[in-house]
Amino acid sequence: MRILLTGAGGFLGSRLLAYYGKKYEVWAPSHGELDFTKEEETEKAVRDFRPEVLLHCGAISDVGACEREPELSLRVNVEGTRNLAHACREAGARMVMCSSDQVYFCGQEEGESQEAFLLPHREEEACRPIPVYGKHKLLAEEACFAEQPDSVILRLTWMYGELTEEERRKGKGNLAVTLREMIREKKRKTFLTTDHRGVTDVNEVTRRMETAWDLPAGIYNFGSPASGSMYETVRSVLADFGLGELAEPAEGKNGPRNLAMDPQKSVQAGVRFPDSAEQIRKYLR
């Protein structure tokens, strides 16, 4: 099988390349080899390589950067996705687009109960994201389906996993790195009682990607279900180490945020992720 992978320098993309590069013929072009914001260049690259599957992880995923440079975000995250999807349709390739739980980042509506607001999000609901990144990911999903209806879109959660030497040098971090440090140094840290979201082991996403590209076309919540608020999740995990008190509660200054995703569509399609807290415990053991 021939796979074209964008974003191979990123957290997920680099793991996909390492894992599937041993099993399939994978081309993971650098930006110099393929600038997917350029339509003709993209179409030629896809046509020449003739992939059966295109895994699109390339994006500007820094939420702050998208807020500061919305035009760049639009060009890369939306128009770049459109170009790749169009090229896939022309070449007869399957497109798998990595989207984000940020499309669900919306405010609590007037009169909406807390219970209703905190229900896990389903793929078919109308999204009204607040951040530029979430808005552009939603537009990218629409562009992807408009150009290549035979696409699979994966709404991913925040991910964690071991860091490479280069990632450590760049000061990268994630939840697992933070929790290991807390356990090792008995360090206290605050976590939000108002932030509800799933967190997923990047290796669990990587291994399931092979199933994802064979799913029926559509949008899928693709990651571990939330285990309550981030504070509840972390405290539950640390309690297994006898260190639950290291997690201290705090409220977000902008009120509640709910990025929790309902996994049922993926489960019914044969893809099941472990609960967030359950998998973090397993990972840290």
Which SSEs are present, and which pair or pack?
Layout: E1 2-6, H1 11-20, E2 25-27, H2 39-49, E3 53-56, H3 63-68, H4 70-91, E4 94-100, H5 114-117, H6 132-147, E5 151-156, E6 158-160, H7 165-169, H8 175-185, E7 189-192, E8 195-196, E9 199-201, H9 202-212, E10 218-222, H10 230-239, E11 247-250, E12 257-258, H11 264-268, H12 276-284
Parallel strand pairs: 1-2, 1-3, 3-4, 4-5, 5-10, 6-9, 7-11, 8-12
Helix pairs in contact: 1-9, 2-4, 4-6, 10-12
Write up this protein.
The chain has 285 residues and is α/β, with parallel strands linked by helices. The chain has a single domain, classed as NAD(P)-binding Rossmann-like Domain (Rossmann fold), CATH 3.40.50.720. The protein contains 12 helices and 12 strands. It has helices at residues 11-20, 39-49, 63-68, 70-91, 114-117, 132-147, 165-169, 175-185, 202-212, 230-239, 264-268, 276-284; strands spanning 2-6, 25-27, 53-56, 94-100, 151-156, 158-160, 189-192, 195-196, 199-201, 218-222, 247-250, 257-258. A 6-stranded parallel β-sheet has the order 2-1-3-4-5-10, with helices on both faces. A two-stranded parallel ribbon has the order 6-9. Strands 7-11 form a two-stranded parallel ribbon. Helix 2 (39-49) packs parallel to helix 4. The longest helix has 22 residues, at 70-91. The chain is globular and about 55 Å long. The model has no long low-confidence stretch (mean pLDDT 97).
